[in-house]
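A reminder before we start the practical. When you read a complex entry, don't treat the lines as separate problems. The point of joint prediction is that each chain is placed relative to the others, so the output describes one connected object in space. Small molecules and nucleic acid strands, if listed, are placed in the same frame. In the example below there are two entries. Take a minute to note the order of the lines before looking further.
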Amino acid sequence: MTESAATPHRQHSHEYEHLLPLLDELAELDAGDPRRADLREQLVTGFLPVAENIARRFSGRGAAKDDLVQVATLGLINAIDRFDPGRGTDFLSYAVPTVMGEVRRHFRDSSWTMRVPRRLKELHQEVSAASGTLSQRLGRAPTPAEIAEYLGVSRDDVYQGLQVGHAYHPASLEESVTGDDEGMRLAETVGEEDAGIEGVENHESLQPLLSVLPQRERRILALRFFENLTQTQIAERVGLSQMHVSRLLSRSLARLREGITEDEG
Amino acid sequence: MSEQRQHVEIDSRDDIELRLGADVVHLPIVRSVAANIAMRADFDLDAISDLELAVDEACATLIALAAAESILGCRFTIGSDEIAVTASVRSDHTEAANTSSFGWQVLNTLTDSAVTWSEPDGVGSGQHLVSIGLSKRRPVVAG
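Here is the predicted structure of the whole assembly.
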């Protein structure tokens, strides 16, 4: 073993020994081989504790735990795809820095948002609530001017309230309850809505990536891009605000993009 | 007179152009400019977010095609009833962006028009200028 002392999983390496032949197998398959998806999924599932462990190390810094695990998992997928067993490096000593890099990038991209003034947070919540009310009333998403008029505030206030939504992580603004009945219902319908993906050229490389997105994100993505619902319609259907749907879509697209680029590159 | 008013020319003083290194680390800046422009044009919240996601996707697509050390140019043209965006990057590839990808389906869903083209860069470097053009119309608001 040539792992550095900084590698947090040294003591657990043997837990993953049964996965090492799968890595070799994956590296030997052609990019278009249908067995890739299955192998990749087995590897992601098998090495998931590595991602979770790293995510835990970064918790308590203001980012939501689920977000961290997702980001770390994305890093893990990148590591699995890029790993070249022929170079003689041990997988974990390759994967751990890759996953940590991904998590660090997540913090770098978002850390300035951790300390948003209370007034801005309140503005965001008011704008978000007004947007929900007005959407119902109008049957479509409202404009900033309509929200300003409804709340009796200036347009600049609305702009600020909207923009802070981009800076925050959804969890810190309006985390929804998961694991309830609605969650179960979502789980049952996901397969059906994934069916629309068949028409897309690289759906085979899309499938394993989609399967890594949380069910809710996957469903929202399918509703927007395969069923062509507006964000406001999706928000109503899944019980989140439009702004929350917007953020989830943005994150999901970024994740898919990274994964697809890896496959092609 | 009234005909003239129906087709208000897009005025160059309302155009906004960004130039940045073709690297994904700069995506949040382009994205927030796009959202800001749509917000101030009083597009509805769905359209604001759609434009933001579309610009993000288009610029990410171009960055993936970009030659090393190249610059991503992104021009926003704000008209009375639509926002048009043209983004371009210098590339070693000669083809335009792949329009059969999932990313392109995303662009088509989010915008009213999405086109991509490629042209020689004009300075004889052998590289091409690959562009994506998007437009998002102001949704028709009843009342």
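Discuss with your neighbour: The CA atoms of residues 12 and 77 of chain B lie 8 Å apart. What might explain this?
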